Amino acid sequence: GFEVVEAGDGDAAVACVTDEQPDLVLLDLMLPKRNGLDVLGFIRGTSALPVILLTARGDEADRVRGLEAGADDYLTKPFEPKELSARIRALLRRSRSAGTDDGGQMTFGELEVSPEQGVVTLRGDQVHLTKTEFKLLVELASGPGKVFSRETLLEKVWGYDYFGDGRLVDVHVRRLRTKIEPDPADPRYVVTVRGLGYKLVP
């Protein structure tokens, strides 16, 4: 049910993203001419387009690098087509709903979150988040002081709970902190509750 445009190498992928304006990118890390991380860097430099990485089994370091570079999700090869389809649909649903959530502006010190407008500001300056980072922040902001487990965040933010990976949440929290925290190493807003998950400090 998807309309698919293929790109055989990294240069073609960059041209495809620019020309075709896709709803989602399924990106292999191992590409000729320009590797997947370079393509991902180009995408993140120009848009918040949802990206799912494809990685070989055992390449955990590449997987984490990809997530830290801005990928929304990943799949390890080999995988079942049904799982790929489910992840694509979940990410597209989440992408379309980002910025259209109910609720008005929420203020946490110098951090302001406006779910309806899809805008986050810190000390009056707009913070540029990917759609996944925005959805994660809005979910945490929906219950200030409440602890959200990784499983709950996977279900609420990524849209599935039976094949998710808690590291996905951890990496996105780290990315979010680099953008909203005065000192990401000593977070003021998104705090880790050891053994339980994360919470947004009111």
Please explain how this structure is put together.
This protein is α/β, with parallel strands linked by helices and 202 residues long. It is 41% helix and 18% strand. It contains 7 helices and 9 strands. It has helices at 10-20, 36-46, 60-68, 81-97, 131-141, 150-158, 166-180; strands at residues 25-28, 51-56, 73-77, 106-108, 111-114, 119-122, 125-126, 190-193, 197-200. The strands form 3 sheets. Strands 4-5-6-7 form a 4-stranded antiparallel sheet, with helices on one face. A 3-stranded parallel sheet has the order 1-2-3, with helices on both faces. The chain has a two-stranded antiparallel sheet with strand order 8-9. β8 (190-193) and β9 form a beta hairpin. The chain is globular, with a radius of gyration of 17 Å. The termini are far apart. The mean pLDDT is 86.
> Helix coverage percent of residues?
40-55%
Overall spatial form:
globular
- Percent strand equals 15-25%
| Main sheet properties | 4 strands, antiparallel
- The low-confidence runs, each spanning 5 or more residues with pLDDT under 50, are none
Radius of gyration: 17 Å
Q: Give the terminus-to-terminus CA distance.
A: 43 Å
Element-by-element helix/strand order: HEHEHEHEEEEHHHEE
Strand order of the largest sheet: 4-5-6-7
Mean pLDDT metric: 86
Number of helical elements:
7
Structural class: alpha/beta
Number of strands: 9
